[in-house]
C-alpha cells in the first residue's frame, strides 16, 4: 500500500446482525437450513462492491477487507468479567450462518479477517492507523459510535443505511465532542449495551459539557471537586475508578497482531464462477442472476459449490448485539416497516415466534391453528393500565419479546378526524410458556369521559394517563423497527398515529395476511377471522357503545367495559398473527404479502392524509346544470309516458313501461314488481324504445348530482380544506384498490357530465395536477400471459391495437379505417378480457346476437392463443380452486365447480379475468411503492394524491413538472421489473394541468 491508496474496512459483524434483524427469516428450500442473514449479508456486500467499483461515485477503493469478531471471549472480558455480560447468546437459527457468511466473504474474493482475543473494532483500528501512517485514505463501513474515535481528516466512516459519510464535523454534531474526545465521553457515559459502567447519572450532553470545560478525562477527575452541581460532583468523585476502567474498555487497540499485511488487502477482480457457485449452493436465485449478468457468467453452466455447514461449538460468533440491528441492510429500502429492494422476500420465511425446529412450515401452520382453536379466550384476564409505571412494565415486556399487538380506540371511524380515546396492547408471555403462545392483553384508557358508568355528571374520568405522556412512551415503541407491531387493518391506526406525530415502523397486518391467503374464500374482518380460526366470537362494538339514537362515542363508554372490548381486539389480533404468519410461508405467499400488500400501507396512509382540493363553486354550478338537465328530461319523460309519475319509483316506472305501454321483455322480481334494472332499461333502449333511454339518462344525471356535486362539499375537511378519500386494500378479490368516503374511483368519464365533475378537482396555487395513466395495461397483460404474437408485435411497434385487431378480423387496411370498424374491434378487445358474451356484445354494439357471435368466433380464430389461455385458466381454477397473477397473487373461486350452470359460468368468467386485472393491479401497486423513494432521491417535492385503477394523480410544483413527469413515467413503465420481464412494453401517458380533467 502507498500514499493515495484507499482502504475500505467493512464491519462484518455489524453487517451480520443488521442482515439478521432487518429481514424476515429465510430457510433454504432444499433442506430448511436458515440462511436469512447470509442472504442479507450477500446482498449488502454485493451492492457495496458494485457502488465502490463505480468510478462515478467518487470514492473507489484500492484495498478492501471484511472484519469479523472471532468470538465473545476477548481481552476485555478477561479484564472486566461483566463486559457484555448482559448480551444474550445468538439465536439458534443464526449460529450456522456465521460460518456460511465467512464462506460468502471468501466467495466474493475478499479478505476475511478475524483475530482470536480481539474484537472486530480493534482490528479495524489497527488497519486504519497503519494505512493512515502510510498516507492512505480509509473508509470504515459502519455507523457504530465505538469506531468514531478513529475519525481523522484521512479516516472517515460510511453510514450505508443513510448513504452518508461521517467525518469530524458529523461526530461533533452528533456527540458534541471531536473524535479524539470520544473515548473520554464514552468513559463518562458508559454503554448499557456492552455493560460498560461509566459514571452513573452522566449522559452524553453532560459529558460533552464537562469535557469542553475541563479538556479531558484526567483533568476532569483531578478537578472533580470544583464541579458546582452537588450530585454530579459526588458521582464523579465516587466513580472515578469506574470511569478509568471504562476508558480502558472503550479504547480501541491499534496494535493487534495481524496475519494479513495491508498489501495483501488489494481489491481483486470478482471471481464470477466462484461467487455464482456459492450463491447457487445457498439457493439465492435473484442475486445469482444479478451476479452472473454482471460477471458475464452462464449461471446454468456453473454447479453449486460444496459448502460446509458448521453447528454447535465449531460455529463461532459473538453474542447478540442489539446495537448492531439499528438499520436495514444496504440495497434494501425499509419504508415505514415495509421491506423492499434487492432482497426478494423469502417464500419459506418462518415466523419469529413459536416452535419450528423439526417441522415444516405447513406443520407449524397446522399446529398453530389447532392450538388456538382449542385455547379459550379469557376476558376476565384483561387489565386496565392507569399509571405510567405499569405502562412502562408492559412496554418493556413488549421489547423483551420483540412482538406486540396494537390497537387504538377513537371517537370516529374517520382516521383524519378521530381523537384517541385509548389503546390496547397484547404480548406473548415467553416467561411462563417458552412457546410464546400464552397471550396477555391490556387496555390503556386516556380520554374517557364520565357518562355511562365510571362517574356521572360530566368531566374526564380520573386515574387515566395523560395523553401526551402516554403517546411519548408509545412513540418509542411504535417507531422502533426492531419490535414487530401487529395490527388488524393497520392503515387506520397508521394514519391516526401519523396525525399525532408517530410513524409506525416494523409491522404486520393480519387483515392483509388473510387477504393474501384467502382472497375470494372468506371475509377478512377481525370478527370473521376470529370465528373462523379461533372459534371465538368477539364482543360487538354496539354491545359496548350502543347503536342508533342510543349509541355513544367510545370516550363515553365506562372503562371496565372498554377494557374487555379493546383488550380483546389486541388479544385476538395477536392470536390471528400466530395462526396466519406460518400459513404465508407454508403456502409460499410471503413474497406477495411483503412486496405487494404490507409496503403499500404507509403509502396509502400518506396519500389519504394529503387529500385533494375541490372547488366548491364549480361543484355548485355543476349541481345547478345537472338539476336543469334532469328537469328537462323529466318533462320529456312525462310526455312520452302520457302522464306524470315518480320517476325514481321502480314500481311506478315498471307499471308505465310494462303495464301501460306493454313494452316487451318485462319480468317480475320476487316481490311481484316489474324489474326496472339498468340492464333491463339498456336492453329496451338498444331495441329503439325512447322512454327507457330517457330514463337511463335521467338516472345518470341525478346520480351524478346526488353522489358527487351535492355530496363532495360535505367531505371537505374542516381543517385541511381538502377531500380525503379512504382506500381499502382488501375489498376486491383481484388486488384492485377501492375508494370510499367519498368514492373517487367511480366518477364516470365516458360522458361529458362526468368529465365536468373532474374539473372541480384542482391544484393549489403554484402547483399542477399531474395525471399518469397506463395505456391499455390489461390488453398488454393479456398479450403477455396469453403470449399472442400479433398483439405482442403491435404493442412493441406502437401500433394502434384496436385498428390492428380490426384489420386482422375484418381484412380492412389500418390506413383510412372507418371509425365504426375500429370501435367494434375495441369493444371486442376489452370485452374478451371480461368474458363478454354474444348477448352482451350485441347490446353494446347495437347488432344482432348472431352477428356478435360471429365476431367473437372470428376473434378466437385470428388469435387462437387467447382461447388456449381461457381454457387453460378455467382448467387450472377447477383443479386448484384458484388462479394466480403473474406476481403470484392468488384469487380463489370456490364455486367454480358448482352444479348450478349460471354460478359456474360466472366463476369461470371471473377466473379468466382475474389474472389479467389482478396483474395490472399488482403492477400499479409496485409502482406506488417505488414512487416516493424515487421522487425523494431526485430531490422533487411531488406528492402522490390519488390512485384510480390504472391512473396515479400527483400534485407538483409548477417549476418541477418537467423534471417530475419522466421519473413518474419511468417508475410506472418499469414497475414489473425485475420480478417479471414483460413480453410487451408498458406505456404511460402523462399530462399536467390545473384540474384533473385537463390533466387526464
Quick overview of this protein structure:
The protein has 38 helices and 24 strands. It has 1000 residues and is α/β, with parallel strands linked by helices. Among the domains are: 177 residues, Rossmann fold, CATH 3.40.50.1010; 230 residues, Nucleotidyltransferase, domain 5 (2-Layer Sandwich), CATH 3.30.420; 101 residues, Taq DNA Polymerase, Chain T, domain 4 (Up-down Bundle), CATH 1.20.1060; 130 residues, DNA polymerase, domain 1, CATH 1.10.150.20.
Question: Can you describe this structure?
Answer:
The chain is of the alpha/beta class and 1000 residues long. Among the domains are: 6-170 and 254-265, Rossmann fold (3-Layer(aba) Sandwich); 377-606, Ribonuclease H-like superfamily/Ribonuclease H (Nucleotidyltransferase, domain 5, 2-Layer Sandwich), CATH 3.30.420.10; 615-715, Taq DNA Polymerase, Chain T, domain 4; 777-839 and 851-917, 5' to 3' exonuclease, C-terminal subdomain (DNA polymerase, domain 1), CATH 1.10.150.20. It has 38 helices and 24 strands. The strands form seven sheets. It has a six-stranded mixed sheet. A hairpin with a 4-residue loop joins strand 5 (155-159) and strand 6 (164-166). The longest helix has 37 residues, at 901-937. The two termini are 61 Å apart. Residues 320-359 and 452-457 have low confidence and may be disordered.
- List unreliable stretches of 5+ residues: 320-359, 452-457
Named at the architecture level, the CATH assignment of the domain at 377-606 is 2-Layer Sandwich
Tell me what portion of residues adopts beta-strand conformation: 5-15%
Percent helix: 40-55%
Tell me the overall shape.
Answer: globular
Largest sheet: 6 strands, mixed
- Count of extended strands: 24
- What is the CATH superfamily label of the domain at 377-606? Ribonuclease H-like superfamily/Ribonuclease H
What number is the mean pLDDT?
Answer: 87
Annotated CATH topology of the domain at 377-606: Nucleotidyltransferase, domain 5
Radius of gyration: 33 Å
Q: If strands are numbered along the chain, what order do they take across the biggest sheet? A: 3-2-1-4-5-6
Q: What is the straight-line distance between the termini?
A: 61 Å
Q: Count of helical segments?
A: 38
The helix/strand class is alpha/beta
Main CATH class of the domain at 377-606: Alpha Beta
Amino acid at each position: 500500500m502507498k500514499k493515495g491508496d484507499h482502504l475500505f474496512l467493512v464491519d462484518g459483524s455489524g453487517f451480520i446482525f443488521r442482515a439478521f434483524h432487518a429481514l424476515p427469516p429465510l430457510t433454504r428450500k432444499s433442506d430448511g437450513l436458515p440462511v436469512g442473514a447470509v442472504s442479507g449479508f450477500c446482498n449488502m456486500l454485493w451492492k457495496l462492491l458494485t457502488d465502490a467499483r463505480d468510478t462515478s461515485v467518487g470514492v473507489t477503493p484500492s484495498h478492501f477487507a471484511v472484519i469479523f469478531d472471532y468470538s465473545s471471549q476477548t481481552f476485555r472480558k478477561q479484564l472486566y468479567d461483566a463486559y457484555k455480560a448482559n448480551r444474550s447468546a445468538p439465536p439458534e437459527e443464526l449460529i450456522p450462518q456465521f460460518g456460511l457468511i465467512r464462506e460468502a466473504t471468501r466467495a466474493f474474493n475478499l479478505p476475511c479477517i478475524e483475530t482470536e482475543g480481539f474484537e472486530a473494532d480493534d482490528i479495524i483500528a489497527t488497519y486504519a492507523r497503519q494505512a493512515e501512517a502510510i498516507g492512505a485514505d480509509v473508509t470504515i463501513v459502519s455507523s457504530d459510535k465505538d469506531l468514531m474515535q478513529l475519525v481523522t481528516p484521512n479516516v472517515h466512516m460510511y453510514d450505508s443505511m443513510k448513504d452518508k459519510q461521517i467525518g469530524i464535523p458529523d461526530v461533533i454534531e452528533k456527540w458534541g465532542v471531536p473524535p479524539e474526545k470520544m473515548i473520554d465521553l464514552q468513559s463518562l457515559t458508559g454503554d448499557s449495551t456492552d455493560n460498560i459502567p461509566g459514571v452513573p447519572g452522566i449522559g452524553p450532553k453532560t459529558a460533552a459539557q464537562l469535557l469542553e470545560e475541563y479538556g479531558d478525562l484526567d483533568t476532569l477527575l483531578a478537578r472533580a471537586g470544583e464541579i458546582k452541581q452537588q450530585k454530579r460532583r459526588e458521582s464523579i468523585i465516587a466513580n472515578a475508578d469506574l470511569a478509568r476502567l471504562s476508558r480502558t474498555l472503550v479504547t480501541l487497540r491499534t496494535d493487534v497482531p495481524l496475519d494479513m499485511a495491508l498489501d495483501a488487502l488489494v481489491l481483486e477482480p470478482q471471481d464470477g464462477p466462484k461467487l455464482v457457485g456459492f450463491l447457487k449452493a445457498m439457493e439465492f436465485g435473484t442475486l445469482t442472476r444479478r451476479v452472473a449478468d454482471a460477471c458475464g457468467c452462464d449461471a446454468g453452466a456453473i454447479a453449486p459449490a460444496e459448502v460446509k455447514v458448521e453447528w454447535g461449538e465449531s460455529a463461532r460468533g459473538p453474542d447478540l448485539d442489539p446495537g448492531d440491528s439499528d438499520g436495514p441492510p444496504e440495497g434494501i429500502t425499509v419504508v415505514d416497516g415495509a421491506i423492499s429492494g434487492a432482497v426478494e422476500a423469502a417464500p419459506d420465511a418462518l415466523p419469529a415466534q413459536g416452535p419450528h425446529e423439526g417441522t415444516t412450515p405447513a406443520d407449524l401452520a397446522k399446529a398453530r391453528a389447532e392450538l388456538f382453536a382449542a385455547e379459550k379466550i379469557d376476558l376476565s384476564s384483561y387489565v386496565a393500565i392507569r399509571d405510567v409505571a405499569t405502562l412502562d412494565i408492559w412496554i418493556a415486556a413488549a421489547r423483551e419479546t420483540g412482538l406486540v399487538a396494537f390497537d387504538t380506540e377513537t371517537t370516529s371511524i374517520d382516521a383524519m378526524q378521530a381523537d384517541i380515546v385509548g389503546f390496547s396492547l397484547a404480548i406473548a408471555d415467553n416467561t411462563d410458556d417458552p412457546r410464546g403462545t400464552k397471550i396477555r392483553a391490556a387496555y390503556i384508557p386516556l380520554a374517557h369521559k364520565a357518562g355511562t358508568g365510571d362517574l356521572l355528571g360530566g368531566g374526564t374520568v380520573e386515574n387515566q394517563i395523560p395523553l401526551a405522556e402516554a403517546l411519548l412512551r408509545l412513540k418509542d415503541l411504535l417507531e422502533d423497527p426492531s419490535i414487530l407491531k401487529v395490527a388488524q387493518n393497520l392503515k387506520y391506526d397508521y394514519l391516526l398515529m401519523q396525525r399525532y406525530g408517530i410513524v409506525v415502523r416494523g409491522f404486520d397486518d393480519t387483515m392483509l395476511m388473510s387477504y393474501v391467503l384467502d382472497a375470494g374464500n372468506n371475509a377478512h374482518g377481525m370478527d370473521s377471522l376470529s370465528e373462523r380460526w379461533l372459534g371465538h366470537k368477539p364482543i360487538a362494538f354496539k354491545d359496548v357503545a350502543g347503536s342508533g339514537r342510543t349509541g355513544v362515542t367510545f370516550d363515553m363508554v365506562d372503562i371496565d367495559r372498554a377494557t374487555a372490548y379493546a383488550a380483546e381486539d389486541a388479544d385476538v389480533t395477536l392470536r390471528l398473527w400466530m395462526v396466519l404468519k406460518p400459513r404465508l410461508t407454508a403456502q409460499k405467499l410471503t413474497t406477495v404479502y411483503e412486496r405487494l400488500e404490507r409496503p403499500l400501507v404507509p403509502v396509502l396512509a400518506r396519500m389519504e392524509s394529503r387529500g385533494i382540493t375541490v372547488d366548491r363553486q364549480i361543484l355548485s354550478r355543476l349541481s345547478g346544470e345537472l338539476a336543469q338537465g334532469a328537469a328537462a328530461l323529466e318533462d320529456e319523460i312525462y310526455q312520452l309516458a302520457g302522464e306524470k309519475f315518480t320517476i325514481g319509483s321502480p314500481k311506478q316506472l315498471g307499471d308505465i313501461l310494462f303495464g301501460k305501454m306493454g313494452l316487451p321483455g318485462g319480468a317480475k322480481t320476487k316481490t311481484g314488481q316489474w324489474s326496472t334494472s339498468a340492464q333491463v332499461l339498456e336492453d329496451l333502449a338498444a331495441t329503439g324504445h325512447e322512454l327507457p333511454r330517457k330514463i337511463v339518462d335521467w338516472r345518470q344525471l341525478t346520480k351524478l348530482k346526488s353522489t358527487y356535486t351535492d355530496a363532495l362539499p360535505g367531505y371537505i375537511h374542516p381543517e385541511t380544506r381538502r377531500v380525503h378519500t379512504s382506500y381499502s386494500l382488501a375489498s376486491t378479490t383481484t388486488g384492485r384498490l377501492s375508494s370510499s368516503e367519498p368514492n373517487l374511483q367511480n366518477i364516470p368519464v365516458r360522458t361529458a357530465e362526468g368529465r365536468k365533475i373532474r374539473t372541480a378537482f384542482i391544484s393549489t396555487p403554484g402547483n399542477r395536477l399531474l395525471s399518469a395513466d397506463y395505456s391499455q395495461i390489461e390488453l398488454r397483460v393479456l398479450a403477455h400471459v396469453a403470449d399472442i404474437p400479433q398483439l405482442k408485435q403491435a404493442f412493441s411497434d406502437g401500433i394502434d391495437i384496436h385498428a390492428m385487431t380490426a384489420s386482422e378480423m375484418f381484412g380492412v387496411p389500418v390506413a383510412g379505417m372507418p371509425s365504426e370498424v375500429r370501435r367494434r374491434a375495441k369493444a371486442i378487445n376489452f370485452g374478451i378480457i371480461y368474458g363478454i358474451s354474444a348477448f352482451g356484445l350485441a347490446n353494446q354494439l347495437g347488432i344482432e346476437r348472431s352477428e356478435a357471435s360471429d365476431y367473437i368466433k372470428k376473434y378466437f380464430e385470428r388469435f387462437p392463443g387467447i382461447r388456449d389461455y381461457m381454457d387453460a385458466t378455467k382448467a387450472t381454477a377447477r383443479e386448484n380452486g384458484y388462479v394466480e397473477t403473474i406476481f403470484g397473487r392468488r384469487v380463489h373461486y370456490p364455486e367454480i365447480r358448482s352444479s348450478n350452470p349460471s354460478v359456474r359460468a360466472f366463476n369461470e368468467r371471473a377466473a379468466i379475468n382475474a389474472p389479467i386485472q389482478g396483474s395490472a393491479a399488482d403492477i400499479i401497486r409496485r409502482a406506488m411503492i417505488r414512487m416516493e423513494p424515487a421522487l425523494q432521491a431526485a430531490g422533487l417535492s411531488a406528492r402522490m394524491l390519488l390512485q384510480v385503477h390504472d391512473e396515479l394523480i400527483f400534485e407538483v410544483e409548477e417549476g418541477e413538472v418537467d423534471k417530475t413527469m419522466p421519473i413518474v413515467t419511468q417508475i410506472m413503465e418499469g414497475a414489473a421489473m425485475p420480478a417479471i420481464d414483460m413480453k410487451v412494453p408498458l406505456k404511460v401517458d402523462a399530462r399536467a394541468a390545473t384540474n384533473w380533467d385537463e390533466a387526464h
